[in-house]
From TrEMBL:
It comes from the Bacteria. Keywords: Membrane, Transmembrane, Transmembrane helix. Pfam families: DsbD_2. InterPro entries: UreH-like_TM_dom. This is Sulfite exporter TauE/SafE family protein. The chain crosses the membrane at residues 72-92, 104-122, 156-177, 189-211, 223-241. Residues 10-234 form the Urease accessory protein UreH-like transmembrane domain.
Length: 264
């Protein structure tokens, strides 16, 4: 995999660049969840109506943040589970002298390139994954009925967690890519970074969010994101093979020196 800082940046960029897709899938859910929140009622008495309205507005923002926290936590949990499983399999393979690390490195770069192409407009991988996980969502969706009305922070976090399991190709593409990292913790952090990248658009914070969505939807912006992600995908392969070539050259030089010394 690439250096950690670059990996986290790539994950955040994936979320940010994929925001328009997230809005297409999650825009209606955001409105539904907001409508399902029941603000605490208080006796009006001497409370001015405008103060009550402000209180309700802050309450809605608070629950919106909890929804996002639950969603991002769900991404991180998925990353930890799958990333940990792959890390364990790789550790076992290493004990059996099976050289799979190089294959995983190549696969991670290929996945990132495919996601870059998806952001640029090719949706093949995302559509395949959405169909593959659609059945899981159908089984989990009925659980949301037990969490509505959303009148406690625990319910808000729980339904946000379910939201994170939507059959979204971008999410599961990123999950596979992140799971090919070095550990469960690394995969979880990458998925959290991805979730944070989607948060500004999904939260729909006024004109700033609208301007951000408009900029990301532009073809030139999407192509720019895709190009940057492809470069980030190729970087670890370049450094790995450059290091291998340098190591091979150093080994040959050492062997030649030892052979010369032996001749003398």
């Amino acid at each position: 995999m690439m250096p950690e800082a670059l990996s986290y940046s790539a994950a955040f960029l994936l979320g940010l660049a994929g925001s328009p897709h997230c809005l297409g899938m999650c825009g209606g859910i955001t409105g539904l969840l907001s409508a399902s929140v029941t603000a605490p009622t208080r006796q009006q008495g001497n409370i001015i109506a405008s103060e009550q309205k402000l209180s309700n507005g802050l309450h809605s923002v608070y629950y919106s943040v909890l929804f996002q926290l639950g969603r991002i936590s769900s991404y991180a949990l998925l990353g930890a589970i799958l990333g940990g499983s792959i890390a364990a399999a790789r550790s076992f393979a290493d004990t059996q002298l099976l050289p799979i690390s190089q294959g995983l490195r190549i696969l991670a770069s290929v996945m990132l390139i495919l996601m870059a192409l998806s952001i640029a407009g090719w949706k093949g991988l995302a559509l395949i994954l959405e169909k593959a996980v659609g059945g899981l969502w159908q089984k989990l969706q009925p659980l949301s009925k037990h969490l509505i009305p959303i009148n406690t922070p625990a319910k808000a976090l729980a339904i946000g967690g379910l939201w994170g399991l939507l059959p979204c190709g971008l999410i599961y593409s990123t999950l596979i890519w992140s799971a090919l990292s070095s550990s469960a913790a690394q995969s979880a952090i990458l998925m959290a970074c991805f979730g944070l990248g989607t948060a500004p658009a999904v939260l729909s914070i006024g004109s700033l969010s609208g301007g951000l969505r408009g900029a990301i939807k532009k073809t030139t912006t999407r192509y720019g994101f895709a190009t940057l992600l492809i470069l980030l995908a190729l970087y670890p392969l370049y450094t790995f093979y450059a290091h291998q070539g340098s190591h091979h050259h150093s080994t040959e030089h050492q062997d030649h020196t030892e052979h010369t010394d032996h001749m003398m």
